[in-house]
Design brief:
Layout (H helix, E strand, L loop, with lengths): L8 E6 L8 E8 L13 E5 L10 H11 L5 E10 L6 H18 L3 E6 L2 H11 L5 E6 L3 H9 L3 E4 L1 H4 L4 H7 L5 E3 L8 H11 L4 H16 L2
Helix pairs in contact: 1-2, 7-8
The protein binds zinc ion (ZN).
Zinc ion binds next to loops.
Length: 225
């Protein structure tokens, strides 16, 4: 299992990451991809069935892959998994697929990364119903304070959408959230993780080093390492 160093920039969710000194990336593999996790690139991995890429036809094959690789030592979380009302199969099928991945996450005792678009009721009611012991991380978040607090109150963590977090209007939200529940990500976009840290550190009146140490501590708590 690869882990970040205390003074690394932590990119909690990426697609297409390569290893770089000073940056620790958690790379996502969606189960319809050919790729598999490994230990040799200084990255950690998540693997899951993404609502965009699943069909009734390919579901079983993807599920087998997730079950197999969920136990890989360098897969540190399940997902991204979740709900999308704008893309993907019908919502009841999405629910079934999501619940399967919650069960796997609980079985292997690894957290779950969430993709959620316009389906917050579904997400919250799944959390209430399934009562997971593993923490969930809602990635790509760009919603309102009230929604963020609803998720956080249920024990979830939030990684802010890279594009939103760079905008001036994210400052207020950032300042209003508990620091110990936040992560940052590039999500395969062009913005560098160091640039995102600089913007957020300024928003929070912290130095980049202080922000690094906060997010490092969040990482250790979230993953239990
Ligand atoms: Zn993503």
């Amino acid at each position: 299992m690869n882990l970040p160093l205390a003074d690394d920039f932590i990119d909690i969710h990426n697609h297409g990451a390569s290893s770089a000194t000073g940056i620790f990336s958690v790379e996502n593999i969606t189960a319809d991809e050919e790729r598999v996790p490994d230990d040799s690139h200084g990255l950690a991995y998540t693997i899951g069935i993404h609502p965009w890429h699943v069909t009734v036809k390919n579901y079983n094959e993807q599920l087998k892959k997730v079950i197999l690789y969920s136990r890989h030592s360098n897969v540190i979380a399940l997902g991204e998994a979740g709900f999308d009302r704008l893309r993907g199969p019908e919502i009841n099928f999405q629910k079934e697929i999501f619940e399967k991945q919650v069960i796997i996450s609980e079985e292997v005792k690894k957290p779950l990364y969430i993709h959620c678009v316009k389906a917050w009721e579904e997400l919250l009611s799944a959390h209430k119903m399934l009562k997971p012991h593993m923490p969930w991380l809602v990635h790509g978040f760009r919603g309102k304070h009230e929604l963020a607090m609803q998720l956080i109150t249920r024990g979830m963590y939030i990684s802010l959408w890279f594009d939103f977090v760079m905008r001036p209007e994210s400052t207020q939200l950032l300042k209003s959230l508990p620091f110990n529940r936040i992560f940052l990500e590039t999500d395969g976009g062009d913005t560098k993780i160091s640039t995102i840290y600089e913007k957020v550190a300024t928003d929070l009146d912290l130095t980049v080093d202080q922000l690094k140490s906060q997010l490092y501590s969040n990482f250790r708590t979230f993953f239990g390492v």
